[in-house]
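Here we describe the complex-level prediction in full. Unlike the single-chain runs in Section 2.1, the two entities below were treated as one system.
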Amino acid sequence: MKKTNNTLLIYALLLALGLMFTSSCNRLDILGMVVNRSDTEIRVADWLEWNQQHEPFVIDHAPDHFVFYSCSDSHINDDNTRLDAYITAERNDQEALFSIIAGDLANESGERPYNLTDSAMRFDPATHAKNDPCFPIIGNHDVYFDCAEHFKNHYHTSTYSVTVNTVSGFKDLFLFLDSGNGTHGRQQLDWLEKHLSHRSEYRYCFVISHNWLFRTTYNYTTTPAANLPEDEQYAFMDLMSRNDVNMVVMGHFHYRDTKTFGGVKYVMTDNLNDGSEASYLVVRCADKITYEYRVLDLQ
Amino acid sequence: MKRLFIIALLFMMTVGAHAQIRSYLEYDYNRTDRSTVGFVVASGFQMANNFHLDLGLKASSNYYALNVAYQIDLLKANKGTLYLENRYLYRLMRYHLQEFNALLDFGWKNTHWNFQLGLCNRYIAEIPLRKNGGEGVVFEPMNVTFNIEGNLFTQDHPWNIGGGISNYREFTIERFTLFYYNIHGYYDINERWRLIGEAGLHPAGILNLSAQYNGFYTNFGFIFKP
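The structure predicted for the assembly as a whole is:
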């Protein structure tokens, strides 16, 4: 009897394992724990190649005092209402210049989340006062299954810079990074260092990446979410401090957190896709940088 | 000079006691730092029947580290030993920051297996240390640590090979979402000298479900029992 029970237990475990790895679930890529679907270094080479073939993003004639919006973890399945509300809020804010989606656009395999993201980003004269750009980056959910290929087809790059030139001649630098695999990779850090070597030419400098750095509090729904490897995290923090980066904007852990270390403000936004208190970040660049979390208005 | 003194002190403390000296060279490669090389010297002391103390120093091209750990055997049974381990690890990084970790875990070991599960509190601080209204220090509480390792033979066998999975090494404690996969082994030259070696992989993004190769390490050295 005992032997039969043990055999049943083994079969049950094997079945559970089998279900985990061949799961019909198209949201959590369990096999991604051991199988590399899309390598950061290869992806970054693609992003940089695209950048070389295209002009860098520049926003000219911006006011000296302006605002930008940043959200993360929109995690779209079949509904883009929340992302639409976020984009609409930014495009109806007269002081705002552009918006950011700091990774995890998708919450399932296939192209649908990206089509719905595009749809939310599309200018709608009926509800939008102006057609501001929206700059997305890739997150870990955007490299599950076949998602990296869809991200690439829709947004072309996730390692890029945006320069804002103001009317009085100030220049502000925004550097967008790919941390979809929980690491930036050497190539991207080299790219980042190269851009930061020109830091003194700019008034303010912001770095945007998906993967949050610290583990200071817990949200038990996303507790397993990974940080950068420690060595990389410290190298990254040192790079930010040495180059006087003003703010690093991130997402990933689905809660709000801020830390200041080495003179750099690290800010994390929560997930846009869930709960009545979902929020985004509104950053004001003026004589100094200020920011606030604003709760998404779904009315 | 200071370092030499500490190493000499460790050696002197070891001589005559129920103790051993362990030393190894470590090569570490990861995509951020590329190659780094480290040198470790450590001593283990069996202070009492159920109390073991470990002291270790590491100098690498990336950091200097001091590790102090003790183990208390709580329960000895035929099938294994339940023990408590308390570790303190300080690292002075070349990245203008320092890190202090305090780890407490419970372990269970027998002739072939060792399992440990615990919690680690960590402070990350700027160099030089300045509180700066709380802005120069980051406190990360209650990081889960784990270690699972198995060996082919018992420890009294003249050679052995084993493997493990863990989120920490002697001089690095990762967050619980980042693992080290390792294989290790030893070969006894005689009763006093034992050659030791280890090699491991350190991928990124495992619990992001988007794992990828990030780096590896390997070390080789000896254990000497005076």
